[in-house]
Amino acid sequence: MKLFLSFAFTFIISFAFAQETLPKKNSENTVINIKGKIIDQATQKAMFGAVVQFLSVTPASPDYLTDNSFSRTVLTDKNGNFEINNVPFAEQYNINVTVIGYTSYTKTISFDKQGEEETARKNIITKALEPIALTQETKNLGTVVVTAAAKPTMQLDIDKKVFNVDKNITAQGGTAVDVMKNIPSVSVDVNGNVQVRNSSPQILLDGRPTILTLDQIPADDIDKIEVVTNPSAKYDASNAGGVINIVLKKNKRVGFNALASIGAGSPDVLNGNINLNLRQKKFNFFASGSYNYSGGTAKEETYRINKSNGIITDYFNQTSENNRSRKFMSGRVGLDYFVDDKTTLTFTQNFTQGRFGNNEQQNQQYLDSLYKLSYTGLRYSDGTGSFNRSSSRLSLDKIFDKPDNKLSADITYNRGTRSNESVILNDYYNLDGTVYAPQTRVRNTGSGEDHQLTAQIDYSNKINDDKRIEAGLRSYYRNTSTNFGTFSVDETNVETKLPLSNDYKYSETVNAGYINYANKWKGIQYQVGLRMEFSKLDGELIDSAFHFGYKYPEKLSNIYDAMFPSVFITKELTENQSIQFNYSKRVRRPRFWEVNPFVDINDPLNISLGNPALRPEFTNSFEFNYFNQFKNGNFLGVIYFKNNVGDITDYSDTISTKLYQQLINAGVSPNAIVNTYINAGYTNRVGSEFTLQKKFFKNLDLTYNINFQYRKTHAVVNGLDLSNQGFNWDTKFIGNYKIVSPSSKFFNNLNFQLVSEYESPHVIPQGKEKGQFVTDFAMRKEFLKNNKAALSFSINDVFNTRRYGTIYDTEDFYQDSYSRWSVRTFRVTFSYKFGDADFNFFKKKNNSNNGGDNEGDNG
Q1: Contacts by 484-487, CB closer than 8 A, 24 or more apart
Q2: Nearest Cα to 385, choosing from 218, 665, 590, 602?
Q3: CA proximity to 315, closest of 364, 367, 244
């Protein structure tokens, strides 16, 4: 494994720097050298960091259309100068110049071998351009207000949705969980778990796997979210619910730029964030730091009826309150090195630290078959936890003869440590207040370590307007170890280790390669791809030497288990309308807690443990998409079908006598429910989803999403038929409104955002998950010169309705429960942008001998 990674990355570096970056020269080997200077028209000062593009054009084309045969991009130096050498001869080239805050410049330049000044070598044409003067964009024209174009909140495409987080003001000061709540097609449960169309997606951070959870990623560090519901062979196959890629901010604007924010709210909300960027010459340095603290009281309720052969035996009720605190701190630093105009090396280092506190009280009622109270229980739990995680990445981006012919490669190493400790007290009382049963005390302590290594190479080449090829290799390795001890503590504080104690370790390896080929046939664009993935998981319970895991494919005859094809067929109906059919096969491998037989007793009435016999589930996914982009809006309609073979799903049963005897000293109830996981025979989902985005009156942007789904699950466990089927739907509304009124200082640049979502109940093998409704609201006021400052106010869960509930209905028990982990919060956040586009870190101090003003020096 390590040898493969070392060889792969060495090959990448060698290959990238060995390639000739120029296209094949013409028959006479004539090349062009061109140089020039960019200045500000008003001040005549040189413009450092202007983006200059040089592109070949089709001769005699009045619209200066490029033919993609040559393209190069450079930046001007501190004196505004640029130079592009060894350009293959062509009769015409376009030169495009862009600078943020200035009007772009485009001009066609013609070349004549006989008429141009040539060097002594007779095969080099050298041309010096007149200084190019750029004008600043006009902000005010009398009573007319001109605003710079901004990224929309959501960008729809036929196969992907992109959400720009800087427009999501309800999530400011929060975490990635808050961002996900505001994205159509995405739902978030009370524990922060994400689903897309009721399936779990793969979460990526900057396109790569991460050991961070969503609540450990600051919202203010996120640039955009990409949602791909049916990924091609380019993506990991382990994404049965699609892919959600979180793209972090990395500013590349010239000079020094920064954005800082600080916020506070209720209950116990405090956050701060700063993002810095410095770009000078061949270097771009970026850094960020974040702090996020939240508290509050989460509540849960459970009502159960226990049965035997269909006859009620007793009842049980439980309510709990959990006073929690969560503190996250993170830091990120990185450096881009621009080797040349087509090669960039980047190193990024992330650090994240978290601290948790939970103080929970559970009140329990035990009732007989006539619903008469027999005795009560009181359970206290006091726990703390912490983690430290880091991520290091080295990446290379290389462009060859044209922008669409490129190679990217990176190697990422994630490492994390974690620890936790808790004390649990269980007391039981008769109705008169006397002791019903002796008190039980349990102490839990745990620690663990995670290592994750990913190496990836991707190459793509757009041969012409229709034909494209993509290929890549990827190797992923993860190693995890955990030590967990559970001890029963008697009245004299003597501890006895319980069978719940669990020391385990496991390793997971996935090696993959893929290829995609795209072309056009009779007006139909198609892409076919194949991904091969070979995966293995080895787990061991150290104390008992029990081994668990899987290997896919297990043998050569099962090679199809390692093959993941994808097909995309697209037809443009008009310039703005298109339809697409796509198919892909994917896999969801069991997560380590799903296969680890460790018993979790945090809730003595709802125990959970993994199933070492679990196997991966395979998904065949079909979609038909219709996309229509119209004036001030767009529409995306989808009809989909998903067939999950061996669907990994939840399964609950009453506790066995054997397990109860093992846990009796841990204060576990004999009526406890054991929650685990099984492979269902299959689960089919068929549905339709519609997303409409429309802009009204220039300042009002509305997005509406609705999803209808019919789900059928077939599962049989120990002869018990758990099959279930039913219809569900969910809908989400996002509204953004901005007041633009230059005559009013108070109301001008005042933004409002409203996000409202409803999810209907939907079936699970043994019952259903309850419906839920939630609304978030925020407003933001931008002020000071160039809107450098902003003050926002947000309410998370306006009506205090965000809760997650389930109903289990089996032959042995009926249980109705709900839980709230997130609580309604109020937050005020202040942010401020600052920087200097002319800042030059490398500028030498002037002295008395050089005068002090050399801005006009062309070098």
Answers
A1: 484/444, 484/445, 484/446, 484/598, 485/444, 485/445, 485/446, 486/442, 486/443, 486/444, 486/601, 486/666, 487/442, 487/443, 487/444, 487/445
A2: 602
A3: 367
Q: Residue length, the chain?
A: 859
CB atoms within 10 A of CB 134: 20
Q: Does residue 533 come out as left (phi exceeding 0), alpha (psi in the -120 to 50 range) or beta?
A: beta
Element housing 621 (H / E): strand 617-630
In terms of Cα–Cα distance, which of 576, 669, 637 is closest to 365?
669
Strand-pair partners of 170: none
| 405-429 and 825-836 beta bridge pairing | unpaired
Question: How is residue 698 annotated by DSSP?
Answer: T
Residue 680: per-residue pLDDT: 83
Cβ atoms of residues 64 and 94 within 8 Å? yes
Band of the pLDDT at 100, cuts 50, 70, 90? low
Element (H, E) at 270: strand 269-280
Comparing CA positions, the residue from 539, 662, 538, 659 lying closest to residue 596 is: 539
Band of pLDDT at residue 849, cut at 50, 70 and 90: very low
Per DSSP, 148 falls in state: -
Picking from 565, 561, 621, 617, the residue whose alpha carbon sits closest to that of residue 589 is: 617
pTM over 0.70: yes
- What 3-state class would DSSP assign to 842? coil
CATH 2.60.40.10 correct for 2-137: yes
- Residue whose tokens read 């757009």: 462
Position 488 pLDDT exceeds 80: yes
Q: CB-based contacts of 338: which residues, under 8 Å, 6+ apart?
A: 75, 282, 283, 284, 344
* Fold entry, domain 255-277+290-326+349-836: Maltoporin; Chain A (2.40.170)
Give pLDDT tens digits for 12-23. Answer: 444 444 443 333
Report which residue type is found at 431.
Answer: L
342, burial (CB in 10 Å: exposed 0-12, middle 13-18, buried 19+): buried
* Cα separation, 257 vs 251, whole angstroms: 8
Handedness of CA 489, 490, 495, 499 (dihedral sign): negative
Instruction: Give the helix/strand (H/E) hosting 108.
Output: strand 105-110
From the list 80, 95, 97, the residue with the least C-alpha distance to 43 is 80
Quick one: pLDDT at residue 738?
Answer: 87
Contact 335, 354 (CB under 8 A): no
How far, in Å, CA of 653 to CA of 678, rounded?
12
For the chain, give every domain's residue range.
2-137, 255-277+290-326+349-836
**Chain CA centroid to CA 304, Å:** 37
- Which has the closest alpha carbon to 683: 720, 639, 715, 653? 715
- 826: its two tokens: 């109020």
According to DSSP, the β-strands at 31-40 and 132-134 are: parallel
pLDDT greater than 80 at residue 115: no
* Angstrom distance (rounded) from CA 632 to CA 682: 42
What does the pLDDT read at residue 63? 34
Q: What are the residues whose beta carbons fall under 8 Å from the beta carbon of 420, sequence distance 6 or more?
A: 356, 383, 384, 385, 386, 444, 445, 446, 447
In the numeric block, which tokens belong to residue 256? 């020094």
| DSSP state letters, 571-588 | EESSSSEEEEEEEEEEEE
Contacts 24+ apart (CB under 8 A), 641-644: 641/684, 641/685, 641/686, 642/197, 642/199, 642/684, 642/685, 642/686, 643/619, 643/682, 643/684, 644/199, 644/240, 644/617, 644/618, 644/619, 644/680, 644/682, 644/683, 644/684, 644/685
Residues paired with residue 625 on neighbouring β-strands, in sequence order: 580, 638
The token duo for 489 is: 């503590």
Res 783 pLDDT > 80: yes
Cα dihedral 561, 566, 567, 570 in deg (nearest 10)? 160
